[in-house]
Design brief:
Number of domains of chain A: 1
Distance between the termini of chain A: 40 Å
Mean pLDDT of chain A: 95
Structural class of chain A: alpha/beta
Shape of chain B: globular
Oligomer: heterodimer
CATH class of chain A: Alpha Beta
Radius of gyration of chain B: 18 Å
CATH topology of the largest domain in chain B: Alpha-Beta Plaits
Number of helices of chain B: 7
CATH superfamily of chain A: NADH:ubiquinone oxidoreductase-like, 20kDa subunit
CATH architecture of the largest domain in chain B: 2-Layer Sandwich
Order of helices and strands of chain A: EHHEEEHEHHEEH
Low-confidence stretches of chain A: none
Helix content of chain B: 10-25%
Bound molecules: iron/sulfur cluster
Low-confidence stretches of chain B: none
Strand order of the largest sheet of chain B: 2-1-5-3-4
Largest sheet of chain A: 5 strands, parallel
Shape of chain A: globular
Distance between the termini of chain B: 43 Å
Number of strands of chain B: 10
Radius of gyration of chain A: 18 Å
Helix content of chain A: 25-40%
CATH architecture of chain A: 3-Layer(aba) Sandwich
Number of strands of chain A: 7
Mean pLDDT of chain B: 95
Chain lengths: 179, 240
């Protein structure tokens, strides 16, 4: 009778650190899956997104595929949550915003130290990079923000507990941090 | 005797000549602030300490304490305004905390935690400003400067040196350095200067001091700013 919440997660321009925190729930994951069913997520390897109650997004937006996935999540998820520093303000990847895309590519693939076969990757499979990295809320509406780099497993746990009780998560002092 | 005012229904006494901020600090009442320092003349620029004094919105750091004042401080509407001011400071600079040496010891961050800030709320401006790493002991990252003028005032009033000033207007306002080259290494700044200690954020910092405390033991890790006090009080007391 208690229908499980459907949850999708993805990592865009992130480092998977926030997904590691999701795994850091450890045995609490067992309690979580009593109430929550994973849809598209790196944890399920499901590629296609069905209608979900909740979408958790790690990382900001740095390429055309990120934009597409993010819009897909917005379309299919009732509540969309920006998880972690990069999703919220671009984070470390946004440090490239100080430079032009050309400068970044040249430094990474042509002129950088220790490069042996200098060439800029341009395979058709690779999504084109955006000129700048952007936080999620500059592309779609985001309903809630969970900061941290990465956010702690405790913050995720607290968020789900509040959600399941239909309350707004009120992070404790030590669970609210930007680093 | 008569020198009593009331902040959020708490009566506190003050000494003649004190500002509301000084009276509140002495009484252990926290009014959020970034550009105020107890030993430096007030500046009234960060706008975080705006309080409602007998119905009027005034900065606590530049408003004299007067007998009978009824002051609202820790209210939802004032804190909502403070959140907006703090968000503006975050988005107009480059505050990528995970990559900043000041994280965990930063007053801007601590104020944002106190106010429960979860998101920037405004479009990021991602400015590209310079870094002056020319000085042997001191680094200035303009990307994180919040123009509080504490270094300007500390250099002038405490160090008697006038190393810093603010130049430019509006969005182009920035710290300028008193040296013909405009660089820190050619200025009179020395690592002993109070100006180096007062920066509330990761803009003006001592070199070779980063990441000394593990996460969990940094100044603001366990307890909020209303209990811990200013970042620069700790900088003075603790480093080298
Ligand atoms: S100065 Fe403070 S708020 Fe800015 S990046 Fe550094 S730690 Fe974060
Ligand atoms: S360098 Fe630091 S102390 Fe100086 S104005 Fe900027 S933020 Fe304030």
């Amino acid at each position: 009778m208690n229908k499980k919440l459907k949850l999708a997660t993805t990592s865009l321009a992130g480092c998977f650190g926030c997904h590691m925190s999701l795994l850091d729930l450890d045995e609490r994951l067992l309690a979580l899956v009593e109430h929550v069913e994973f849809d598209r997520s790196p944890l399920t390897d499901k590629k296609h997104l069905d209608h979900c109650d909740l979408g958790l997004i790690e990382g900001g937006v740095c390429n055309a595929e990120n934009v597409e996935v993010l819009k897909d999540f917005r379309q299919h998820c009732d509540i969309l949550i920006a998880m972690g520093a990069c999703a919220i303000n671009g984070g470390i990847p946004a440090m490239r915003n100080h430079f032009t895309l050309e400068e970044c590519l040249k430094e990474s693939y042509l002129d950088g130290i220790g490069i042996t076969h200098p060439q800029i990757p341009n395979d058709a499979e690779l999504p084109p990079l955006l000129n700048q990295v952007h936080p999620l809320q500059e592309v779609v509406k985001i309903d809630y923000f969970l900061p941290g780099c990465p956010l702690s497993a405790d913050a995720i746990w607290h968020f789900f507990q509040a959600l399941l009780q239909h309350k707004t998560a009120d992070l404790s002092y030590t669970a609210l941090h930007y680093d | 005797m008569n020198n009593t005012l009331c902040i959020d229904s708490q009566d506190i006494s003050f000494e003649s000549g004190q500002s509301i901020m000084q009276a509140a600090c002495a009484a252990g009442v926290f009014i959020p602030h970034l550009c105020f320092h107890p030993d430096i003349s007030p500046h009234g620029s960060c706008r975080l300490c705006m309080v409602q004094v007998d119905g009027r919105l005034l900065p606590a750091c530049t408003t004299p304490a007067m007998a009978g004042q009824k002051i609202e401080n820790n209210t939802d509407s004032l804190n909502a305004q403070r959140r907006l001011v703090t968000q503006m400071l975050f988005v107009e600079g480059d505050h990528i905390c995970p990559g900043c040496e000041k994280t965990g010891n930063c007053q801007l961050q601590a104020v944002a935690y106190f106010l429960g800030l979860l998101e920037p709320g405004l479009p990021q401006m991602y400015p590209t400003r310079n870094i002056d790493a020319s000085h042997a002991d001191v680094l200035l990252d303009f990307n994180r400067c919040i123009l509080c003028e504490l270094c300007v005032r500390a250099s002038r009033e405490m160090d008697g040196k006038n190393v810093f000033a603010i130049g430019g207007r509006g969005q182009h306002a920035h710290i300028v350095i008193n040296a013909t080259s405009g660089r820190l290494k050619d200025s009179a700044l020395s690592i002993e200067d109070r100006a180096v200690d007062v920066c509330p954020v990761g803009a003006l910092m001592k070199k070779h001091q980063a990441y000394q405390k593990p996460i969990g033991q940094r100044f603001y890790d366990q307890n909020p700013i209303d209990q811990k006090g200013d970042a620069n009080s700790h900088q003075r007391g603790e480093k080298t």
